[in-house]
Design goal:
The mean pLDDT is 89. Helix 2 runs antiparallel to helix 3. The protein is built from three helices and no strands. The chain has one domain. It is mostly helical.
């Protein structure tokens, strides 16, 4: 005989929306930093301040590397467009 039990916990859900645009790099970096590091309001002030400072540094690091990833992705797409004979389109995309 089998006995199966399970429980599911969703936790806190946060929904962020935009109007007529996608999320900015800064918004996505903030979402990632919030997901990676939770800073409790009830934490002692020195610990909370240190954790918040680390979270801010983490966000800036995420922003930097997301920008690098976007540049590299565009470079790859531009190279593929040029290889396919769409140099004008590649130049337009590169200028964005």
């Amino acid at each position: 005989m089998f006995d199966v039990s399970s429980s599911v916990s969703v936790g806190n859900i946060k929904v962020l929306t935009t109007d007529n645009r996608g999320h900015s790099i800064e918004e996505v970096a903030q979402m990632a930093a919030d997901r990676i590091l939770y800073v409790a309001d009830e934490a002692p002030a020195p610990i909370r301040d240190q954790a918040q400072a680390f979270k801010d540094t983490l966000k800036q690091t995420l922003i930097y590397y997301m920008r690098q990833a976007i540049k590299q992705d565009r470079a790859t797409i531009c190279a593929k467009l040029r290889q396919s004979g769409y140099s004008n389109l590649a130049d337009n995309l590169r200028s964005l």
